[in-house]
Amino acid sequence: MSFNSFGRVFTFTTWGESHGPALGVTVDGCPPGVPLDEAEIQPFLDRRRPGQSRMTTQRQEPDQVRILSGVFEGRTTGTPIQLMIENTDQRSRDYGDIAQAFRPGHADITYHLKYGIRDYRGGGRSSARETAARVAAGAVARAALRELAPTLSITGYMVRMGDLAIDRSRFDVAEILKNDFFLPDAAAVGEWTAYLSQIRKNQDSVGAAVELLIRGCPPGLGAPVYAKLDTDLAAAMMSINAVKGVEIGEGMEAARLHGTENADEIRLGPKGPLFLSNHAGGILGGISTGQDIAVRFAVKPTSSILTPRRTINAAGQEMELVTKGRHDPCVGIRAVPVAEAMAACVILDHLLLDRAQTGGRRGTIGPGTSGSQAV
Amino acid sequence: MSFNSFGRVFTFTTWGESHGPALGVTVDGCPPGVPLDEAEIQPFLDRRRPGQSRMTTQRQEPDQVRILSGVFEGRTTGTPIQLMIENTDQRSRDYGDIAQAFRPGHADITYHLKYGIRDYRGGGRSSARETAARVAAGAVARAALRELAPTLSITGYMVRMGDLAIDRSRFDVAEILKNDFFLPDAAAVGEWTAYLSQIRKNQDSVGAAVELLIRGCPPGLGAPVYAKLDTDLAAAMMSINAVKGVEIGEGMEAARLHGTENADEIRLGPKGPLFLSNHAGGILGGISTGQDIAVRFAVKPTSSILTPRRTINAAGQEMELVTKGRHDPCVGIRAVPVAEAMAACVILDHLLLDRAQTGGRRGTIGPGTSGSQAV
Amino acid sequence: MSFNSFGRVFTFTTWGESHGPALGVTVDGCPPGVPLDEAEIQPFLDRRRPGQSRMTTQRQEPDQVRILSGVFEGRTTGTPIQLMIENTDQRSRDYGDIAQAFRPGHADITYHLKYGIRDYRGGGRSSARETAARVAAGAVARAALRELAPTLSITGYMVRMGDLAIDRSRFDVAEILKNDFFLPDAAAVGEWTAYLSQIRKNQDSVGAAVELLIRGCPPGLGAPVYAKLDTDLAAAMMSINAVKGVEIGEGMEAARLHGTENADEIRLGPKGPLFLSNHAGGILGGISTGQDIAVRFAVKPTSSILTPRRTINAAGQEMELVTKGRHDPCVGIRAVPVAEAMAACVILDHLLLDRAQTGGRRGTIGPGTSGSQAV
Amino acid sequence: MSFNSFGRVFTFTTWGESHGPALGVTVDGCPPGVPLDEAEIQPFLDRRRPGQSRMTTQRQEPDQVRILSGVFEGRTTGTPIQLMIENTDQRSRDYGDIAQAFRPGHADITYHLKYGIRDYRGGGRSSARETAARVAAGAVARAALRELAPTLSITGYMVRMGDLAIDRSRFDVAEILKNDFFLPDAAAVGEWTAYLSQIRKNQDSVGAAVELLIRGCPPGLGAPVYAKLDTDLAAAMMSINAVKGVEIGEGMEAARLHGTENADEIRLGPKGPLFLSNHAGGILGGISTGQDIAVRFAVKPTSSILTPRRTINAAGQEMELVTKGRHDPCVGIRAVPVAEAMAACVILDHLLLDRAQTGGRRGTIGPGTSGSQAV
Predict the structure, then answer these.
(1) pTM value?
(2) Where are the alpha helices (DSSP H) in chain A?
(3) What is the pLDDT of residue C375?
(4) Contacting subunits of B (3+ beta carbon pairs below 8 A)
(5) Which reaction is catalysed here (chains A, B, C, D) (predicted)?
(6) What dihedral angle (degrees, nearest 10) is formed by the CA atoms of A184, A190, A196, A201?
(7) Which domains are seen in chain A, by residue range?
(8) Which of A142, A140, A136, A110 is closest to A123 using CA atoms?
(9) Do D285 and C258 touch (CB under 8 A)?
(10) pLDDT of residue C373
(11) What are the φ and ψ backbone dihedral angles of C346, each rounded to 5 degrees?
(12) Computed from CA positions of residues A252, A255, A256, A258, in that sequence, does the dihedral angle turn out positive or negative?
């Protein structure tokens, strides 16, 4: 039970500090025989990379991944897969004068309180650099899911940034990878670009909300009561740096609903159960129905901004802090590929858990069904 | 790694179906020497009990807990504590005519799809009866926390029910246990009572939002990156039946914020760090700061309502279903003590995890601190 | 991660003290649809029961098991299965005068040192009563294995008791359940009976060695490097009260062997690989080959004997202790059904783990095999 | 729950194939503030290294360890510690002609059966190269134990090799690091050297038995019933390549003992309980007493020998195999530092688990003790 591991059968363990020589992840429990190579993983890292667009941070990291184990002649072996990414653009100098000061809104002070020691450079282990490792793990999960759940798709996009929200009537999945915001709304790109540029000029930052649409999830994934699919998806999103809220389906809005509005009726379709609506968000009792799953989460604004903030340092001195590092005016943007990666890991994990307990066999619905199946 | 266990060191495993002879929980990892008896636990169950007020379901269960192990001469022994609650008011007859039909909005169909078999009576394992076992486990956690973290308090209350929201300017903790809604707003009780009665008369149901205020949490709890305190609190809430969204601190609102508004500045107070605000919600980088932690979650409306719904059964027949059982017009109310129990378990677990890795020793802040401590 | 849970997917958690009202086990992760009822489980408990024969202890416990959850209309539901056994013949009076004294050779003193409190009656949680719960869990595992691995058999028997060892040339599996020793050697029963009676008359006790023969284990079970099948079998045996050594295959004898003697050569048989010998004991690299697996372990003599022993009590007083309770002259006998139960749980667990990671699909051996399979 | 992770709080996860670019380990849960650098770890790897003496294999690996994370300014941070060792002397050419053949006595065939794919070069993941990663993890554990349990010592040595056994009357701990066999018996070194040289000349190999003496273990470590200290030590040893049997204290000999010989009586000494003997081997009921713990295990002979063996390959062809690689005539020798490393990890893990549940506080023995302590 490692604090730095995520997953129950398909498990990944990340390591590495922001300014250490490298960071990486050990992926365990991956099914054998999955085609995998570095070219499979790299594009996902590229989408997340700092310095890739003008929209995100100005730290330039190539984030080149190397596979060090667990793959042979282009296929996974079932043994642990080690993925490593070297840090090249640390610029430790940027952080020198805040060596013992605690940046407001960051984990500096809590790491100091808990451990009594912290690698302060670039936020050390608390830095969002760690999410590069998650994205690499997610690429492995996606490769396995391509074999095990070919109808599955996981698509992330932004739905809000500060005062701006998308117009769902113009929603177009095809637009997401064509702009720097992962926006599914082409008409909004200009407005979002101008808005964020202004925020950067103001030396400020802004929050965001991200949504994931999971389509074609096999039904029956999720293990009640404490390994429910929605519980694990929510935990996955909440574990991402700066996330403060998570919603499944209707989310917080469910508090305002009435039961008459909320029930998803069921009919029998040509291929099995046909749900007439999807208020449940594709999950009932913690188990997937096969319908679309929508997960949404909110990311708070970066606190590493360029206006002065009052703080203290480990010696107990009061001071004002101006962090001169290179920071994101909106970290929510990069959370999109991270969330997709986490979701891929959760779904693969649950697919493996389900086939552990049930062999992946589903209960039948049709004439002659007694409601109980052979093992 | 049990699907029905929650926790990492302080672990509880629940069992039991809604209409089985009993339900219960095995609590493991509890520190030894904690004073505990049935009278300690029973009040928490009473607060949750169906049939206790006119506001909730009409099933009448005494929910009497028995301690079957792990306690000797009034103190915990450090061995597993088995708590059992017998079911007495099952009334299986109520469910007879929906034997193979899947109630819309419930886990019936997903349990059937996943397992191929389900105890359909009263919802079987998917029923919220299971939450009685959690409340019992939470009472054990509270008993241990009284010894280990005496300043800690965990208080839950409703903040929304359908169209009605509390007025935070009238917030008074002392009111919470004086009304049937766990409302901290005495003036609203009449309005909420009338609203819910009307909903019941309409044979309808309504959603709710619950908030937990955790005060006096020791700083330093939470283990990054995948055992963060907020991650585990969120997972705990999301695992409760019918929960669709979870928020920590500002929650989904964080997406609208700007960084200038969001940073909690720090000064040095007489007893250590003094935060000038609490936008972070008491948790930074997944580790507690010692400040108030606010957790909020939304519960969707019950779907077991008395208006007809279209559905199918396991034999593939289409039908209309009217569930004649005894149901809650607002399950969110009973979620309040359940959420408190879950939070107690999470915090105790993290306290034990923290003392595993660090011995509970905190980094010092003051003159002469080098930033690194002895082991 | 519960200290009182065993297993990784098929997990059981035991609870209960020797003189508490009951003891039991929660079995989780069991595949759904397995036929199971109390009559299925009871015979295994009867084989283990104290008071069943003159050979074991004189405490008379009916050990009647009740299924409280997880089974519906005669089949497992995939939800937690709670099995409870009430204690009826505690006779707490027997232990009254050793209330704070530590019985030599027992866990009394270590439980006191670790927890600062212990239920001393009958050894509390450290008592071998706990093994009744394991046997119940093992019966559930066997029921599932009957469906999932019908060729599998797990047979336990004694191979040594003090100075007496079986003659393997007279080995006959059919004899095992015909005598009180689980001896596979009919001709030895008289000698063993006399030997043990004399030991009891001398107010003494004696050690034993037990062997398990596992036949028809599916190949491919076991997950290197830290969930190897032999590692988990060894841990399972070592966790049984009073076990001091475990062997797989040649065991400790392997230290004396030369490599020329030790290699199992392989030919191609009509149904696949054919091993020409089995020095490996059915497991290579932690993974089953499909050959017979032999596990052997040694149980030390009971220390609760009737000759006086020097000890101290919690108050620091020195005393002599004569334990007047009812005790086993050879606890190794009852370990036989316990070991079978543990082995069943381990093998089922590994079968589920294997189907999690590989879907249970095996690498093929034959023309056209490229050495790598689809997922 | 990763198949390639060991430990419950202090957890390490290994990765890497014999002929991959590197191998390594992620160590998690280490207490913060422990002094650690590469120079601390390297000597343990040097003791294990192949090619270091004429006694072991002739593969020459420098096994230089690099710390890639989790350490800052010479102390552990409490975040994951990544240790990496590059492979330099793979000589893949040696294995070329056995590409699809299964070496008798090795895991080749079982890895193929389980995964359908294997990295065959040098045994891939099943190779004992993996134990280098364990030794590195063990060095981290030792560093933490130096701080947390300064009286603890863990010493491993050989007690048997084939026909030769040590003479315990000549036992001298100081001799162990002075010869290539980790022999505590200086007079035997010549005989063992000659014996092993002859075995190598005969193109044969031989088994061994290793013993670990753990002194000064803090009392109270171990968590019944399924996280007992002896269970975890046994599992640790059994997980080492080629181990076939494990013993604690008297081990398999316990089967021959009588109870009168076996009980360790207790008196009150100046510093607390004083045991008059140690048949229990330092562990009672799975919890340490503070006395010496002796763990012993047997390692089977290497099967990669130079005499021809009959086998098959993945295509189903029968053949004779002569493995021309560089192999150990006695792998038991290198198991000594590996076993020490595993024991260090187990004991540190249990120390942390114990302080999780009990805060490390021990029950008192003396006047006024009520037998129950505050939390």
Answers:
(1) 0.95
(2) 38-48, 108-115, 130-148, 189-201, 229-238, 259-262, 332-358
(3) 54
(4) A, C, D
(5) 5-O-(1-carboxyvinyl)-3-phosphoshikimate = chorismate + phosphate
(6) 170
(7) 5-358 (3.60.150.10)
(8) A110
(9) no
(10) 46
(11) -65, -45
(12) positive
